[in-house]
Amino acid sequence: LAGHTNLGTHIIDTHSGPVIDPVWDLYRETIELAGSVSTLIEWDDQIPPLAAVLAEAERAREVRRIAIEARSSRVSNGEAAAPGYVPHPPPRPMGSPQGSGGWSVGGPREHASQEAGSVA
């Protein structure tokens, strides 16, 4: 979450200034869809006193709390987490019949001792 610089004809993501209301709305909707996620307040330019940055962090906590309550209320009523929510299937292991794109543990040298000509 970060502020921006509005140059009239375009907006640049400069991480300066407070987070604007439309970004807070998008954050709330994201939490309602995805659940609680790690959140970072980015303020890289024109950094204000610490109290202002901490106030933004507190606002993020409050927006997240409200969004999680809304999500929990819908779920407990038997509704989807959010309108149009479709859960993603779990990842498939590499080389599964459905194709690659899943996950695997280790890299190409994970089992080097099992390679032909290897000294164990």
Given the structure, what is the number of helices?
A: 2
Shape: elongated
- SS strand fraction: under 5%
Unreliable segments (pLDDT under 50, ≥5 consecutive)? none
Order of helical and strand elements: EEHH
**Termini distance?**
50 Å
What proportion of the residues is helical, as a percent range?
Answer: 25-40%
Mean pLDDT: 79
How many β-strand stretches?
2
Q: How much is the radius of gyration in Å?
A: 22 Å
Structural class: mainly alpha
Widest sheet, order of strands: 1-2
Q: Care to describe what's here?
A:
Helix content is 34%, strand content 3%. The chain is mainly α. It has a domain at 1-83. It has a two-stranded antiparallel ribbon. Helix 1 (21-34) crosses helix 2 (50-76). The protein is elongated, with a radius of gyration of 22 Å.
Give the key terms:
mainly alpha; 120 residues; 34% helix
Summarize the structure in short.
With 120 residues, the chain is mainly alpha-helical. It has helices at 21-34, 50-76, and strands at residues 5-6, 11-12.
